[in-house]
Amino acid sequence: MLKYSFTIVFCFIAYVAMGQEVLTLDSCRHKALEHSQNVKTAEADYSISKASHKLSKLGRLPQFDFSATYNYMNKPQIMEIPGFELPTLGGLPSGVYYPGGVTNLTYHNNYSGGVDLSLPLYLGGKLRHYVKMSEYGVGMAEHNLTNTKENLILQVDQQYWALVSLKENLNVLNKAVKMLEGVVTQTQNWADVGLLTGNEVLKVKVELNNAKLSVINLNNNISLAKMALNQTMGKSILDDIVVEDSVVIASDSPVMVADIEQKAEERHELQILANQVNISEEDRKAVRSDYLPQLVSFANYGFQNPNHKAQDETEMAFVAGVSVSIPVFHWGERHVKMQMKNMESQKAQLTYDKAKEGLILEIQQCVYQVNESLVKIDFTEESLEQADENLQMELNRLNEGIVTTTDVLDAQVQWQRAYADFIDSKVNYKVNLLHYKKVMGSLNY
């Protein structure tokens, strides 16, 4: 019978374990990157920008087109030429008679076809500016894709470490509940022999109930944190997951930044704005090229009926030429457009400068926050050691019957708060270090 009992318990544990998926930080990142619609949208924008850049370069190559038309006329036009006497050089009748005739201006069947070739020779540099604009667009899309991924990794890591923090705080609360249960037992024993009053026992029981209520609330928060992380990873929000890590801090040293301005310029957000500045400048040059001479060559080789380009109706005709367009006077249109583009370029530059100042400040703040987190870990760890020592001393004194429950409960509250502060300080360090790596461009994924 005992054998079957062990088998049932083992199967139940295995079933529960199968229902929970153990996740590491890397697996959470990988699932989130695969699911994120924002990342997929940024990838699509990047592919579109590369295709647009390729198309812009094709605009400088010769263009070949084939065209053909056919028209049927029920009653074609006919011109009748009457006969007349040819004059002499002096204008007198020559006696030579030119017979009249009939000429078809159109036919029942009218058709044409041929191959057209066009090649822009000079458009004021417009094509070159368009190629540069599309090239900067590719850079913008690439930086936007990387920045989107980094923002997602930042979100996943924050949710992951928040769940780890809640898990460790739950362990602390469970220790507190177990310890308070022991205190309840001890105080009840002292009350049974008359060394403590029933009120002292009630105080401990109330604190025990509060701790159990905190466990329930913390479990609810853990469930909500799991739902948020599941949603980010594209899993069902009701899936039960278990995070593998605990908040362990390595012996890290304070961080420093040698050249904050250079680090700010390397940020993806600022690189996007830098490309926007370059695009606005190229756009301004493209508008200016609209008012420069335009030189385009063209050629056509084909046939038509009726054929007015060749001596024989069945002969293939070849036509080639060059078209030149020189803007002369447009009532100040060029001046107004250039003013608009100049203001747009200035606006883009001002946006870049403002963002750069904000990023420099953000980098410096991240440096301060990481270093403060390291100091806070040392302080909270020392406070936890003191609170733990004080709690053990009060518990020993309670066992000896020389202390009240109030002193024990106060020591327990201080220990629990110190433990929670220690966990929070480690989690804050993890999150602040994550922000620091992102602003420094060293966030790997």
Can you give a write-up of this model?
The chain is 64% helix and 16% strand. It has a single domain, classed as Outer membrane efflux proteins (OEP). The strands form four sheets. It has a four-stranded antiparallel beta sheet, with no helix packed on it. It has 445 residues and is an alpha+beta fold. α2 packs across α4, α3 runs antiparallel to α4 and α4 runs antiparallel to α7.
Itemize the secondary structure elements and their pairings.
Elements: H1 2-19, E1 20-23, H2 25-35, H3 37-58, E2 63-72, E3 78-81, E4 84-87, E5 93-98, E6 101-104, E7 109-122, H4 126-192, H5 198-233, E8 240-243, H6 260-265, H7 268-289, E9 294-305, E10 317-325, H8 333-400, H9 405-439
Parallel strand pairs: 1-8
Antiparallel strand pairs: 2-7, 3-6, 4-5, 7-9, 9-10
Helix pairs in contact: 2-4, 3-4, 4-5, 4-7, 4-9, 7-8, 8-9
Strand line-up of the largest beta sheet: 2-7-9-10
CATH fold-level topology: Outer membrane efflux proteins (OEP)
Output mean pLDDT: 85
Question: What's the SSE pattern?
Answer: HEHHEEEEEEHHEHHEEHH
Number of domains: 1
Kindly report how far apart the N and C termini lie. Answer: 53 Å
Total strands: the figure is 10
Number of helices: 9
Shape: elongated
Uncertain segments of ≥5 residues (pLDDT<50)?
1-18
Helix content: 55-70%
Protein traits:
single chain, 445 residues, alpha+beta, Outer membrane efflux proteins (OEP), four-stranded antiparallel β-sheet, two-stranded parallel sheet, 9 helices, 16% strand, elongated, disordered N terminus
